[in-house]
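Researcher: Structure prediction, please.
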Amino acid sequence: MYSQPLFRTVDLFGFYLPPVALWAAAALIPYLIISRLADRAGFYRLVWHRPLFDAALYVIIVGALIFGWPMLSGEISQ
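Model: Predicted structure follows.
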């Protein structure tokens, strides 16, 4: 049974982009939304180092997109 690779490079106007660049760009919108909501809710008062927390939040969102998308799209069945 032939299946397409899960992560493939994308040709954008002659430039080949690695899949992680596309995932990082896609994670930017949820990161901005969550960051704004946390700021308005006053959550950052509880955070010791805001830039470190923001970096960790972004990495968590990128990882969740990379590992969660195949399960949500049905490409990997349990």
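Model: The chain has a mean pLDDT of 85.
Researcher: Thanks, that helps.
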